[in-house]
Description:
Helix content is 54%, strand content 0%. By secondary structure, the chain is mainly alpha-helical. The chain has one domain.
Amino acid sequence: MGRQLEADYPPLxxxxxxxxxxxxxxxxxxxxxxLRDEWIYASADxxxxxxxxxxxxxxLVSFRLEATTVAV
Length: 72
């Protein structure tokens, strides 16, 4: 099974990127593991949980806040 590229996912909306940044700031260097756990237990903020549905856990592993472009 091939690896999906960033271009294979819908672009992030400004609100999604802002929510990810706030989450990362609030959870420190292991923020992805914390978010993944919240996704597993469906306890994430609804905006972040929608990212699980649209992008998924594999996307989260390769996601980089500093290299993200936003949809208009």
